[in-house]
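Known limitations

Structure tokens in this collection are predictions and should be treated as such. Users comparing against experimental data should check residue numbering before alignment. To illustrate the layout, the record for Phospholipid-transporting ATPase is reproduced below. The input appears on top and the generated tokens appear beneath it.
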Amino acid sequence: MAEKWLWRLLPWRGGWIPRRKDAGHEEERHVKANNREYNDRFLYADNHIKTSKYNIFTFLPINLFEQFQRVANAYFLFLLILQLIPQVSSLSWFTTIVPLALVLTITAVKDATDDYVSIAKALGLGPKWMNVRVGDIIKLENNQFVAADLLLLSSSEPYGLSYVETAELDGETNLKVRQALTVTSELGADIHKLAEFDGEVVCEPPNNKLDRFTGTLLWKDGKFPLDNGKLLLRGCVLRNTEWCFGMVIFAGLETKLMQNCGRTTFKRTSIDRLMNTLVLWIFGFLMCMGIILAIGNSVWEKSVGGNFRKLYLPWDEVLSDAFFSGFLTFWSYIIILNTVVPISLYVSVEVIRLGHSYFINWDRRMYQAQRDTPAEARTTTLNEELGQVEYIFSDKTGTLTQNIMVFSKCSINGKIYGMRQWQQTRQLLNSKGTLKFRFHDHSLLEAMKLDETAVREFFRLLALCHTVMPEEKMEGELVYQAQSPDEGALVTAARNFGFVFRARTPETITVYELGKAVTYQLLAILDFNNVRKRMSVIVRNPQGRARLYCKGADTILFDRLEPASEELLCTTSEHLNVRFAGEGLRTLALAYRDLDEDFFQGWMQRLREACSLVEKREDLLASLYEEMEREMTVRNQALLGATAIEDKLEQGVAETIACLTLASIKIWVLTGDKMETAINIAYSCNMLRDDMNEVFVISGHSVLELLEQGKEEDPNCLPSGPDCCVVLSLQAHALEADLEGLLLDTACLCRTVICCRVTPLQKAQVVELVKRRRRAVTLAIGDGANDVSMIKTAHIGVGISGQEGMQAVLASDYSFAQFRHLQRLLLVHGRWSYFRMCNFLCYFFYKNFAFTLVHFWFGFFCGFSAQTVYDQWFITLFNIVYTSLPVLAMGLFDQDVNEKNSIRFPKLYEPGQLNLLFNKRQFFLCSLQGAYTSFTLFFIPYGALYHGVRDDGANVTDQQSFAVTIATSLVIVASVQIGLDTNYWTAINHFYIWGSLAVYFSILFAMHSNGIFGIFPSQFPFIGTARSSLSQPVVWLVILLTTVVCVAPVLVVRFLRADLYPTQTDKVKCVTSGVCEACPNG
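Generated tokens:
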């Protein structure tokens, strides 16, 4: 019982789904309608869902607990505790707690905002559904959210139909049809009958498969099979249906929607991984410095300390031991030098990434006005990775092409139609034709009028074999709701040639054939899937003859055909492979079969038995489908022909691919289409060109064939240069362990790779293969549900919001409307993000080393006593006030070249691919520069002021004046350095840099003023130190000398490097400024 209530007490954390005690052992679910006593025995989840992490009481403790699980935050909490020990700390506690509190507060505000949004979304279902339990029967009304996973019992529509919008599940906005069983649809809205309904559902246990459901309804001594078409899933919205009744099968956390709320794989950039390594290095470096200074303290205590204590500074006996003194000093220096570990680094990085994401969202040049679709950064963690992409894996249909299908050509009984340049428009043979339909061949219309049997049977198949739903709108307008553009195009073609699909019921399909209404009895639908690659329907015509109509991929269908005329099969194959695929058209083969009644009745009986099973139902159905379609190899069958659908290229695809290729990005096309179709599209978008040396085709149908092709070919024929292309026709065995290496090695020798006949799983396997073996940054782009696995596998996933719904977008990291926007996403936003982040990190580490290591040098002159150089308030404010905003401005707005030149010179993208701007070597160099700056900051003022005097002859070498001099020098040097690092100046950069200097001097004089001393005398005891020190010319001369010595070497090195070893950026700047005449390559 305790487990049952545990999830109510603990916050839900996104990826964690509480389970019942026996959830892992539930093999099937038994649910009785209107019987809570029976259902409660199984401890099924109720409908209460807590999607928020926090409430008003738990927010603070839980959020703090989560934040202190991060190593950096826990480390600084440990330092804060150390600072409370007087024998260890020489710094006040506020030097650590102020920056730590700021970091914790910013993160807490972000977490609270995200949680509030999640609560607001959850309230959409309303509290009234919380008491719903498994087995209850509930009523839904039009435009209402489905509150749980329901078995549809009855509805206001004929035949128990209901329409739902599934945008919250799969992103698709077109309506889906769900249909109740005939036996339950008779319950209607009769409350008395519904209350007495006592059916039992035996079904699969809770799972996350949105498109699959297997179960059986036991009622009135009958067994009725249940599938996904009988289920209303939580998250859907009831549309165009006045009311419906449903029985709750899964509730709450066991619904398919919530089962899909598992933990999403968190993608990290290469810079993230490098930063984690570098922070560990810094920890190690900090420990080494602490040990060196602790040893120095022990030696000093033993040799000098005793005499020093007797004369100047008497200590307690407990500290007289040199080793123990060194031990305490070690922890004291760990506290003092802690600023070398950047506590604010991760927060600053997230702020910069958030800004870069907004820049992508706000980019009007990536906005598609026709679809009202802006670009969207759906994550904020991968922006700089966009500047390091080496491989792009692209779907073809809907990504490179528009996915707006047009019935272009067809082959019927060995004759091609649609090759003539004559335009036939609108209604061809009926009054229900569409104004937008175009077909370029009048002879097909003539063949229809001449009553050619094959032609009529061809369009009859197109009108019957589909899952389209018709919808009669205002003024008699007939609209088709199709789940794919291909189906819509084929049914529309049949409609315009006189075979108008008008109505569908669970048992019938009505088609107007040349103006005459004909109703077919629908006996069975053999569904399409990515494995079968075909769809069939079995219907009985008014004459009583049962017939199978089938359409599918030609390679699948032709294996099941043995036509009486071998010539027809060869002719149709030639049309498909040469005439249609050669033009880049999408093709399907069509066939039918007259069924023997005895065989059909026996087959139907076995089908009904398979549908009544819960276990292994899908395997049995697949076997039965195969048996029915395999029997097309015997008598009474015929090949009707083939269809060819045109899917035009998206705007700007060829130019985008050419530009990305110049940026040394390798583009692989992964498509399920025929090889000839894919090759033709590749030529259209300039991936293949006539001047390429070789197009190398690998299309073996066995492991042995592939090995022979890869290893026994003439070496002169193998791809051997950047102007080669390899075309891979992937069979199931092509990605086996013993072949994947050969496949990848061959493909990577070429500029262009096209993989044909690829399944969705193989797409993901190809991406994973390149990720694993090449260790390169990969990007996958697609628009459909079959691209989701590929998008999730790649380092960066991009979704195209096109004609196939929003599944790809929902799974993606970035989305936009057209492929051509990828050029701007990578070459402008990606390159800038990488450039800015690298510059930010180099400067951040530089200033932290320069700031912190001054204490290390000072340790050798203060008896290793852990005395600080700076004032404590300066230590507190340096990173969070004096230098925070200028570096953020640089990380957000800096540009080495403008957006026009970023696209004009694609070679500028290469430094990101080679990881040149920030790596371990660059970290070492910026750390070395920081160490040099700290050395200069300490020793120049120390040497210059050691014997220095004021204008009145007084000594200026007191510790506070020395601290003010070094602090002022540091702030000025840091400001000058960021000015040198800034390539693109904006008003914001000027304001932040000059403003930070002004804030520093304002706070400095305020902290040494009489007024603040009067308020806090113990915290600000050094009255007038800043005014006294900075009024002396010698101090300003020291500051100037220090600044020049710190900055001059940087200027010299950068000048010589740009002159002797110019980068691509240097060359582009030279060309665009008009100084140079030669244009850099690329």
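For this record: Confidence is low (pLDDT under 50) at residues 1-24, 421-428, 712-720. Residues 26 and 408 are 52 Å apart (CA to CA). Please report discrepancies through the issue tracker.
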